[in-house]
Amino acid sequence: MDLSNPSSSSNSPAVAAAAAAAAAAAAAFGFLLSSSLSLPLLNPTAFLATEYLRADNERCTYTRRGPSQIQTAAAAAAAASEQQHYQQQQQQQKQQHQEQQQQQQQQQQQQQQQQQQQQHQQQQQQQQQQQQQQQQQQQQQQQQQQQQQQQQQQQQQQHQQHQQQQQQQQQQEHHHHHQHQQQQQHQQQQQQQQQQQQQQQQQQQAPYPRL
Questions:
Q1: Per the record, which residues fall in region Disordered (predicted)?
Q2: Hey, which of 6, 74, 104, 144 would disulfide with 45, CB 3.0 to 4.6 Å?
C-alpha cells in the first residue's frame, strides 16, 4: 500500500485514528516531533515521524510507510513508557535507599551521642567516687591526728601525775624529816631540863661550907 499517494486507500478513517493515537502517545511521553515532518491530526495523508529510544538504546526513525510503522511506533512508545517507569522506580529505590542510609546515619549519630552522654555520666560518677574517697581519706587522717593528740594528752597527764606523785613523796619525806627534827629538839629540851633539875637538886643537897 503506497502512502505517498493521497488518493490511495490509506485515507481510511482507521489510518487517521491510528495516526492520532500515535501522536497522542508520543506527546504524552515527551517525544519530539520532527519539525520537517510535522503532521496535522486532521490530515490523513501525512504520518507522524518520531524519534524514540528503544529499551536496547537503538534509535529508529519512521517515515511515511503505512500503518505497520505506526503500530511499531506505538509499541516503541509503550516500551519507552515502561523504560521511564522502570527508571522512575529505580530513582525511587535510590531515594529510598538514600533515605534509609540517612536514617541509619541519624540513628548511629544518636547512638554515639547516647554513648557520649553515658561516658560523661560515668566520668562524673567516677569523679564523685574519687571525691568521696578523698573525703574519707581526709576523715581518716583527721581521726589519726585526733588519736595522736589524745595519746599525747594521755602521756602528758601521766607525766603530770608522776610529777605530782614525786612532789607528794618529797613533801611527805620533808614533813617526816621535820617531825623527826622536832622530836629530837623536844628530846634535847627535855634532857636539858632534866640536867637543870639534877643540878638544882645537887646544889640543894650539898652541905654548906664551913666558916
A1: 164-211
A2: 6
User: What number of other Cβ atoms are within 10 A of residue 76's Cβ?
Assistant: 24
Q: Which three cell numbers stand for residue 191?
A: 634532857
| 151 SS3 class | helix
**Cα–Cα dist 132/124, whole Å:** 12
Residues 15-45: tens digit of each pLDDT = 667 666 766 665 554 444 444 344 444 444 4
CA-based max dimension of the chain: 230
Name the grid cell of 23: 501522536
> How far are the Cα atoms of 134, 138, 165 from residue 151, in angstroms, in the given order?
25, 20, 21
Amino acid at 20: A
**pTM score, two decimals?**
0.34
Dist CA 116 CA 112 (whole Å): 6
